């Protein structure tokens, strides 16, 4: 069973349960927020987030290098080529916008939370903003997810300590980590310093156990790298930057 949702492409991966802050200033996404605001507050204001495979998160707005004569692109599919579907990864995540606040300049500050994984079947660029036909992808636990989650949590704590030491900083929080396997798998996938293709692979894992097995290998490898290269730069754990789109 499929449904159609507004589509918000980003240069990052959103996971279920993770918070997504957005700074909305492009007209196509302003139009999306205006439409979402028509939904009553007591109902979910949902849109789909998908990672960009090949394209620009922010459409060119002026001529630039190397060709100063290049005209800026406009429209809902600007920056994504003639067939936007090919510019995006096949799986994304539904986001529930808890807060949509309009600024004086007409832009919006949005705070959303990932809810469920979805497969992107088609993209429609005929309106003011992109929409997509999506199908929910259930999360299956898989064999041994509980034991794997315990191992991943131990590896993640070691990874955090190594990363904090490499940056000559203390851990920013001593908060207890969750123990529910799927929550652990998504939290670690979001918090670890990994590139977008790797995070996308984790999102698309066939089940929680498979994701946890992959994460265990990644965490051990990354921890070993940090141990040998203590000056390795990294971003803040468990905290994503506001997307400038």
From TrEMBL:
Bilayer-crossing regions: none
Signal peptide residues on this chain, from the entry's feature table: none
Entry annotated with the keyword Hydrolase: yes
Region listing for Disordered, in residue ranges: 61-80
SUPFAM superfamilies linked to this entry: PUA domain-like (SSF88697)
InterPro entries registered for this protein in UniProt: Lon_prtase_N, Lon_prtase_N_sf, PUA-like_sf
Alphabetically ordered keywords of this record: Hydrolase, Protease
Keyword Transmembrane helix assigned: no
Boundaries of every Lon N-terminal domain copy: 5-223
GO molecular function, one term: peptidase activity
Gene Ontology biological process terms from the UniProt entry: proteolysis
Matches recorded under Gene3D superfamilies: 1.20.58.1480, LON domain-like
Protein's recorded name: Uncharacterized protein, similar to the N-terminal domain of Lon protease
Organism: Streptomyces formicae
């Amino acid at each position: 069973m499929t449904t159609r949702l507004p589509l918000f492409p980003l240069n990052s991966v959103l996971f279920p349960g993770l918070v997504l802050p957005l700074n909305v200033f492009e007209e196509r996404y302003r139009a999306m927020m205006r439409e979402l605001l028509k939904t009553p507050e007591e109902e979910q204001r949902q849109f789909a987030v998908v990672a960009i495979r090949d394209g620009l998160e922010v459409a060119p707005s002026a001529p630039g290098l190397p060709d100063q004569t290049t005209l800026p692109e406009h429209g809902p599919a600007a920056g994504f080529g003639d067939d936007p579907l090919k510019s995006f990864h096949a799986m994304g995540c539904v986001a529930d916008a808890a807060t949509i606040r309009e600024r004086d300049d007409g832009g919006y500050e949005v705070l959303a939370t990932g809810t469920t994984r979805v497969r992107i079947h088609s993209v429609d660029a005929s309106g003011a903003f992109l929409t997509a036909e999506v199908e929910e992808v259930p999360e299956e636990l898989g064999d041994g997810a509980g034991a794997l989650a315990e191992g991943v949590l131990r590896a993640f704590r070691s990874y955090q300590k190594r990363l904090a030491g490499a940056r000559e900083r203390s851990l920013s929080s001593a908060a207890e980590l969750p123990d529910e396997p799927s929550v652990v798998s998504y939290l670690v996938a979001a918090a670890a310093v990994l590139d977008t293709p790797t995070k996308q692979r984790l999102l698309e894992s066939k089940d929680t156990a498979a994701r946890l097995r992959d994460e265990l290998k990644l965490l051990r490898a990354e921890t070993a790298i940090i141990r040998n290269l203590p000056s390795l730069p990294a971003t803040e754990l468990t905290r994503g930057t506001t997307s400038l789109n």
